[in-house]
Structures are given as structure tokens and as C-alpha cells.
Amino acid sequence: MKFMVRVVLTQNLTMFYRWLIRSDPLRMPLSIAGRILTRALEMFSYVHFLGLDMSEITEGYLCPECLLNLSSEAALVSHFEKNHVPALQDNEVEKLAQDYKDLALDQPVDVVRSRLSLLEYIISSLLEGKLAPQSIPEIDLKPKLQEFLEEQVNRRTENDALILQLTTERDSALSEIGQLKDLSVQLQSQLQTRCYDLSAKEKELTVVKEQLKDSSTKLEASKNERQTFPVQPKEQSPNSQLNERLEGDLRAIEPKTLNPSEQLIVELQEEIDSLKTNLDDLKTTLNYLKSENKALVEKITTLSLEVQVKEGQIKEFEKTVKVMRGNEKTLRNSLDEAEEAAKQKDATIKSLQQELHQFMSDAKAKSDECDRLTKHINNLTSESNSVNETNAKLNVKLNELRTQLTCLVDSENALKQKLVEMDSTLAAQNEELGNHASIVTELESKLSSTYAEHQALMDQLIESQNRSKQLETALQTSHQELEGLQRIILDLGRQNQALQITQDRLTNRQWVSDESVQFCSNCQKEFSISVRKHHCRYCGKVFCQACSSKKTATSASKDPLRVCDACFAELTGAW
Q1: Which residue, 80, 128, 217, 516, is most buried by CB atoms nearer than 10 A?
Q2: Cβ atoms within 10 A of the Cβ of 146, count?
Q3: Which pLDDT belongs to residue 544?
Q4: Which UniProt keywords apply (predicted)?
Q5: Nearest residue to 297 (alpha-carbon basis) of 493, 491, 487, 485
């Protein structure tokens, strides 16, 4: 914004110089020009007073009296002449011009020449920047510029700290993701180990149950055989004795078989309950990890939004740099216009010198005419003795001329005094303008240092963009790893569900009692003495000899056991 105000001041001062050069010095009193120049100097003080808070000042053509923003130089000149320049009547202007021309006959040429030299010095000093800041101490912009530079350094430090913080948070997020990966792998291994243990315990329980069922089946078979065959005569006594002995052995073996089996079943059931409890704990832990993972994803999203905000700030910096470049271009254009005005000033000075030569030639002609009139008066005086009427008329005319001469002398004295006052005013203004030129030089040096800082900011911007791209790449990698973990968890859930289905199917298999079945479970043949009942050692159902003639190894026994056709196909895969 300070550069915009500088451009505004440069444009207004350039307009003032052109106006001052183009204007006829006889038509514009120097008091008005001094007042305009004073207002321009007050604008510098106004800039110093505002410091950095100049948002209400816009680029354009400002009126030096009321600070009104206008669109062009012509509009500014018209506004100033209409509202701020005292209106002079045409007759007064013509009278002032005529008086000045008349006084030029008696006024020394050095006064006119000094006035033109002073005007030329003011214009050249303003255009060339030969102003010293010591004469105007209140327009000291150095503290403000120092404060601006310190603020730029602080902003750059804050940007570096923010980038470092983002990098640290990115590294922390990556380390947390790695820890979550390790924990997920550890939980998966623990879950697989528990599933394997549970499967082994279930198989062991199934084997014990089948052994118990086999013992019960043998016992029931012995009881059925004893009940089926009636007591034989005495010639069959050896068989009956054998049966009684077998029955006694079974009765003795049955408690020994059932008690350890039941105890083992209870122990296995407790272990299964313990494993289920551990499985629930693992599920709880998995849910907790999911919530933590979700929180981590939200944190990563927040970091992404912060990165976008920083990119927006970087874009604002770029816009500011563009505005500064535009101001620099405008300033250069103003300097070009000032150089053009200097050229026009040289041409105007040449024209003023020509007018001065013309005034000197006119003064010489008037002097010759005065000499001629003096000679004529002497001739008339020598003839006055002869012509009294003519002498009286000449005396009257002489008195009139003396009266006019007295008026002209008074006017000359007043104008000389006014000219001395204006010369002193212009000298003071010249000194103030010298101060402003040094301030402009100092601002230009500060502008070069600002360009260097701008280059440093551009380097930091490029570095920040590279870091932002690296953060985006790391974020995409984290998303991919997170999706892989979610797929693994879904696979584990499906495997657990399949294991539960298998466990339910194995648990629902029961050993069918012989007494409750009268027909083959496959071919529906009725059981009789010739069609015997046979249990499938895998599903526990009752079949005839033809439907259960196949044997194969099962998970409960390495030796081949009798199984039905359906279980044989299931175990061997021979569909």
C-alpha cells in the first residue's frame, strides 16, 4: 500500500510540475503555486502519520487540497481550478499583466532573471530528487520501514515454524501408522493362534465324545443282543456263561471309561469358554483399534486441510508480490513521465528566455522613445517663452504624468515587496523539497531490499510446495496401507464366521439311538434280523449294511472307520 501512495504522490507532483511549466507566470500568482506545493508536502506528512494503515487510499489522481480521488490529470486540473483557485476577474488579470509589462521598463532585469532561475531550480530539484530529509524531521519513514521489514522477517519465521510443525506432525502420523500396522499384525497372529487352539480343542472334544458314544454303543449292543436272544437250553450254557462274563467286564469297564471322559469333556468345555472369552477380548481390542484408526484418519484429514490453508496463504503472498510488481511498473512509468516533463521544462525555459530577450528589446525601444520625448520636451521648454498657452497645457500634462508615475512607483514597490516574500517562501519550499528527494532515494533503496526479501520468500514458497507434495504422497501411502488393513480385518471376520459355522455344524451332530430308528436313513429299508443296523462313525446316523459299507479315515481317528455314502463323499471329496 505504501508503494501505491508513492505512485499517487508522484503522479500528483508530476501533474503539478507540468501545470506550473505550462501556465503563464503572469496569470497564476506565485502564492497559489506555493499553496499547492505546500499541500503536496503535507501529503508526505499524512503518509508518515498513517504508517502502514492506508487501506482507504487508492491509486489514482488525488487532489492536493481535499484528497479527492479523480480519474485523470485533466479532471484533477479542472477540479482544482474550479474549487480551490480564487477566481480572478478578466479585467484584473489584464491590468496585472499590463502593470507588469510597464514595470518591466523600470524593473531590473536581474529580478526577472532571478525569478525564472528560482522557478527553474524548483522544477529541476523536484524532478531530479535533490531533496534532503534533515529539513523536515516529522517525515521520518525510517522507523516505519524498519517495523515493516521486521514484520516481514517475523512472518517468514512463522512460516518456517509452521512448515516444521507440519513436517513433525506428518512424521508422528507415519510412526503411529507403523505402530498400528505392527499391532494389527500381532493381533492377527494371536487371533490365528487362538483359532488353531480352539479348533484343536474342539477336535479333541469330538474324539472323546465319539469314544464315549462308541462305548455306549457297544454297551447298548451287548444289551440288545442279550435281550434279543432268549435263554438257551443247557447245551448252550458255555455261550451264556460267555455273555455273562462279557457283561460283567462291560459293567466293570463302563465306570472307568465314563468318568475320565466326562471329566475331560468338562475341562475342554471350560477351555472352550476361556477361548471364547479371549476371542471377545480380541474383538473388543479390534473395535478399539478401529476407533483409533478412525481418529487417526480424521487427524490426517485435518492436517490436509491445514496444508490447503497454508497453500492459500502462499497464493496470497504471490498476489501481494504481483501487486508490488505492478506498483513498481507504475512507478517506472511515472519516472518516465517525469523525464518527459523535464524535457518539456527545458523547452519552456528556452521559450521563457526568448520572451526575456523580447522584453529587453521592448525595454530598449521604450528607453529610446523616452529619450526622444525628453528632447522634444526640451525643445518645447525653449519655446515656452514664446508660446504661453502651449506651456500651460504642457504643465497640466506634466502634472498628470507625474501623478501616473507616482502610482506606478507605488505599485512597483508593492510588487517588489511581494516578490521578496515569495522568494523567501520558495526558498523554504525548495529546502523542504530537497528533504523529500532524499526520502524518495531512501525508499528506493528499501525497495531494492524488499525485492531481495521477495526473492527469499519465493524460494521459501517453492520449498513449501515441495514439502506439501511430499506430505500428500505420504498421506496417499497411509490411505493405501489403511485400506489394506481394513481388507485384512474383513478377511479375518469372514474366516471367523466360517469357523463358527463349522463349529455349529460339528456341535449339532448327535449319535442317533438304535431304538429310535426303524428304517435306513438313506435307502429307507426296514431293519430286521437279516438287515442289521450300522452307525456312521462321522455323522452318527443309522444305516443298513449297503449304505454304510465304505470306510475312510476321519479327523477323530487315523484308522479307517465305517461311514455312510454321504460322509464318505464329504471326507474324500468324491462327489
Answers
A1: 80
A2: 11
A3: 94
A4: Coiled coil, Metal-binding, Zinc, Zinc-finger
A5: 485
Q: Per-residue pLDDT averaged across 526-531, rounded?
A: 91
Domain count, the chain: 2
Q: What is the pTM of this model?
A: 0.23
C-alpha cell at 484: 489394506
Distance CA 544, CA 536 (A): 10
CA distances from 297 to 449, 476, 478 (A): 44, 11, 9
Find the range with the poorest average confidence among 38-42, 104-108, 443-447.
104-108
Residue 66 sits in the same domain as residue 151: yes
Closest CA to 340 of 29, 73, 64, 31: 73
Which of 420, 435, 459 terminates a domain? The answer is 459
Q: Which contacts qualify for 456-465: CB closer than 8 Å, 24 or more apart?
A: 456/156, 457/156, 457/317, 457/321, 458/321, 460/156, 460/159, 460/160, 461/314, 461/317, 461/318, 463/163, 464/159, 464/163, 464/310, 464/314, 465/311, 465/314
Residues 427 and 521 reside in one and the same domain = no
**Dist CA 241 CA 544 (whole Å):** 30
Residue 145 burial class via C-beta count within 10 angstroms: exposed 0-12, middle 13-18, buried 19 and up = buried
DSSP code at position 140: -
Q: What is the pLDDT of residue 148?
A: 57
Q: What are the pLDDT digits (tens) for 74-101?
A: 777 777 767 765 544 444 445 544 544 4
User: Which 8-state DSSP code applies to residue 525?
Assistant: P
Contacting residues for 176 by C-beta, under 8 A, at least 6 apart: 296
Cell of 550: 465304505
**555 belongs to a structural domain:** yes
Q: Which one, of 147, 33, 130, 8, lies nearest residue 85 by Cα?
A: 33
Question: Which string of b and e fits 185-222 if b means at least 16 CB within 10 Å?
Answer: eebbeebeebbeebbebbebbbebbbbbbbbebebeeb
Domain extent, residue 568, equals: 510-575
Query: Cell digits for 298?
Result: 480424521
Residue 16 sits in the same domain as residue 129: yes
More reliable by pLDDT, 43 or 375? 375
Contact yes or no for 40/9 (Cβ under 8 A): yes
